[in-house]
Amino acid sequence: MTATHVHDPGRDQSTRALLAGWIGTTVEYYDFSIYGLASSVVFAKLFFPTSDPVIGTMLSLSTFAIGFLARPIGAVVFGHFGDRLGRKSTLVATLGLMGVATFAVGLLPTYGQVGIAAPILLIVARLVQGFSVGGEYGGAVLMTIEHAEHGKRGFRGSLINTGTSAGLLLANLVFLGVLQLPDDQLHSWGWRIPFLLSAVLVGVGLFVRLSLEESPEFEAVKAQNTVDRLPVVEVFRECGGRVVLMAGGILSAGVAFTLASVYSLEYARTGLQLGKDSMIAVLLPATLVIIVCVPLAGKLADRFGNRRVFLAGAASLIVLPFVWLALLQTREYWLMLLGFTLLFIGYSANYGVVPAYFSQVFPARLRFTGMSIGFTVGLIAGNAFSPDIATYLLHTTGGWLGIAVYMAAMSVVSVIAGLFLREEGDAPQPPHDPAPHDPAPHVADSGAAQVH
User: Fold this and answer.
1) Is residue 9 part of a domain?
2) Is residue 3 part of a domain?
3) Where are the bilayer-spanning segments (predicted)?
4) 123 within some domain
């Protein structure tokens, strides 16, 4: 007898949702990395020329930080529309807006061409980037998780987070190629290439997202007439504590990743008296550990539970910063690589389960808003300021121990948050009367899917 293959449209949608989310995360961290590299290497000369190159570089790097200021606004705005109008249309908007802003940077005139208008336009583009990113990650995670089967949500959600390393690797490879150009070509047109190339990833991502169906759990919310008019108000009224716990929960992963992938290059020069190229040679192969270990963490989460794996990873990051920084002091390539590998294993266990874990601590009708705000606040607290804090600690203490203590302290906060942060099915929910929020009466189909 010949076996007949049965086409499963639900599985197709699940795969497309995963691909769309992964591309969005890859674009986000690709943009994050190329902007940071350009700020350090070329933007000072092109957009902030001064008699003091140090001041120019500081002004250039300040535009990198400005992007973080717009993220909470984007989290609130896109969270509102994601919970009111749907995940799909909101995600198309965030990726499209992010792509336009990044592409626009590659087309901007320089200070030498239009004067003060050049840095102003650069700041505007950076604010638009940050605004769109504020809603991108939470929405991408929700579309993936809400389309996935319950027994596979940990693994599928973890695959979204491999986009972090994919974006970092791709950005470094593209910029490494551009930096081989002669200085005159680099500063005239070469620096634009990484920004313009982002359009390829964005185009693929938009194509996939437009072919997606709406999240089945959001469709169930609409069918049950429980869509809120002001999700942000309801999030803080019903789930404010969970938003705070989520922000605390992400600190360990945010600090570990930012110090390892960004600050380590500066630490190589000031703390180890090594060239930045030496640290990049260690960092790039070490990022492969994340690509391998994050999906493994997702598999473990599907078997043992999201919260348990998250707590194990956060607990390991209390100890591993001391091991990582101690091994860096050897200045021996293979021991430094071992230090990064161990740190990234702990990071992967902690961060790999964030999509499945954090997306399920809010009721479906408030997930986009709740997750976007909680994640963004934690991201700013953990990622935006950690390089400055580490720089201050190294300068005031003269050694690496203070940095390790800081990283461990942030991980303690994440462990405490994880002990109290329960997934939706594990905690009693406050009663919700949908009547005040209903824009119009609606009779739900008796076969409508239930919200998990």
Assistant:
1) no
2) no
3) 29-48, 54-78, 90-110, 116-138, 159-179, 191-212, 243-263, 278-297, 309-327, 333-354, 366-386, 398-421
4) yes
C-alpha 250/C-alpha 398 separation (Å) is: 28
* Cα separation, 317 vs 404, whole angstroms: 10
What's the total number of domains in the chain? Answer: 1
Query: Tell me, what CATH number does 403's domain have?
Result: 1.20.1250.20
Supply the range of the domain harboring residue 409: 15-215+229-424
**354-408 pLDDT, tens digit each:** 988 998 899 989 999 999 999 989 988 888 778 888 888 988 888 899 999 999 9
Q: Is residue 353 part of a domain?
A: yes
